[in-house]
Specification:
Length: about 160
């Protein structure tokens, strides 16, 4: 049977309609502590993480989770033999638990980063520093958020 113009146009319209459908990626509505641990292990591997040397300056009570100021400082002389290689920041309940990775070297001057983050809900924030001897040091803080961020609804 020969293809008619009408048959061709209906097939082409059907293919175009299927191509116009949005691709939806489903993520968990709320992240879990297991996702936090997985994200941390993706960065540090099986290395032990010690507590100390890292200071996290973040408000314990946040009125608006859309812009939360945060500073991470690591006690390090930042010399060629003893410096901070990287600082990684994680959170417990945002859809993506790895907030940021910051890479430093001896010429960075001091081991400190300051930024603003978004927090979806009341949760724990963890900062981990990797030193030049490949040791990992961490600090964590519990943050109470009264107005959540990162909670847009998908229609």
């Amino acid at each position: 049977m020969p293809t008619t113009r009408r048959h061709f146009l209906s097939l082409a319209g059907g293919v175009t309609a299927v191509g116009a459908l949005p691709i939806v990626t489903l993520r968990p509505v709320e992240a879990t502590p297991a996702m936090l641990n997985t994200a941390i292990r993706n960065v540090v591997g099986e290395a032990p993480i010690r507590t100390g040397k890292v200071k996290l300056d973040i408000p314990p009570l946040v009125e608006n989770g859309n812009t939360v100021p945060m500073t991470v400082t690591v006690a390090s002389p930042m010399t060629a033999d003893d410096y901070v290689k990287s600082i990684h920041v994680f959170n417990e309940k945002n859809p993506q638990p790895n907030i940021g990775n910051f890479y430093l070297n001896p010429s960075s001057g001091r081991a400190q980063i300051s930024t603003r983050i978004r927090l979806a809900d009341t949760q724990k924030v963890v900062a981990i520093a990797r030193l030049s001897d490949d040791s990992f040091w961490q600090v964590s803080a519990d943050i109470v958020v009264t107005l959540a961020a990162c909670t847009e609804e998908v229609n």
